[in-house]
Amino acid sequence: MTLYRSSTIESLGPPPLWVCTLLGVVMILAGFFALSDLMFATIISVKLIGLTAIAAGAFEIIHAFWTRGWGGFLWQILLGALYVAFGLTLVTQPASGALVLTYLLGALLFASGAIRCALSFAHWAQNGWMMLISGIFGIAAGLLILFGIPNISLWALGFLLGVDLLSHGLAWLLYAFQSARATA
Predict the structure, then answer these.
(1) For a disulfide at 27, which of 49, 96, 151, 169, Cβ 3.0-4.6 Å?
(2) CA–centroid distance for 63 within its chain
């Protein structure tokens, strides 16, 4: 009889406390760095997304030639070319790319908030009011972004990146401190 472990990840165990602390500190410093120059952080974010789109498009085109007999060859080539073109546009025109990405972010936040509001009533018995509050914040954030364009497009992505890095870094630090207290 062969025994299988349920998950390789579970067998690894939690990361050492020094790794969690170091990761938290690095992310907090990166968050402060991003918040110190929002436009620079926005431009870097847009260029990174552009490079990612270029890589995804190149892989899509390579995949089309590699799996030529599977069908959809032209569609895969077209999709890959669109990814590459979008990525090149973001890398070469980061200010315009920031405008497009900020607009998409606002639309996604608005749509996500509206969906959470609608779902909150279906799950009202299971604390749906928390989902309603979250949805209202999503709608408000989406509307603020959508009605603030183009004025906020050069700093919004950098600001959100900085805040995300700070909150993620704080979460890692809290995890490390909580784990240290639990083992003490």
Answers:
(1) 169
(2) 25
**pLDDT per position as a tens digit, 124-139:** 888 888 889 989 988 9
Phi and psi torsions of 5, nearest 5° = -75, 150
Whole-angstrom distance, CA of residue 176 vs CA of residue 171: 9
SS3 of 44-112 = HHHHHHHHHHHHHHHHHHHHHHHCHHHCCHHHHHHHHHHHHHHHHHHHHCHHHHHHHHHHHHHHHHHHH
Write the DSSP symbol of residue 138: H
Calpha distance 92→54 (Å, rounded): 12
- Between vectors from CA 178 to CA 28 and to CA 15, what angle results, nearest 5°? 70
Q: How far apart are CA 55 and CA 94, in angstroms?
A: 17
Burial of 2 (0-12, 13-18, 19+ CB in 10 A): exposed
Instruction: Name the pTM for this structure.
Output: 0.71
Q: What is the pLDDT of residues 11-37, one digit of tens each?
A: 677 788 899 899 999 999 999 999 999
DSSP conformational letter for 37 = S
